[in-house]
Design goal:
Layout: E1 3-6, H1 8-16, H2 21-28, H3 32-39, H4 46-56, E2 65-68
Helix pairs in contact: 2-4
């Protein structure tokens, strides 16, 4: 069975922290292209995910899931 990535947890965490996507981009230092990939549930490098985790003070499991297609 094929697997894919979901960043739904990230969007829920941003709501909980009352942040929008632009604020996340500025606080974490990620690019607009990376933010677009997040919105499309596409693969990102681990270094980008770590930047997001550092900005939100969380772990990778708090912002993404691997799900069955």
């Amino acid at each position: 069975m094929a697997k894919s990535i979901s960043y739904d947890k990230l969007w829920k965490l941003l709501i909980d922290k009352k942040m929008n996507r632009t604020e996340l981009k500025e606080k974490s230092g990620i690019s607009t292209a990376s933010l677009a990939k997040l919105g499309k549930n596409e693969n990102l490098t681990t270094s980008v995910l770590i930047k997001i985790c550092n900005a939100l003070d969380c772990n990778i499991g708090d912002i993404m899931d691997v799900i069955d297609d």
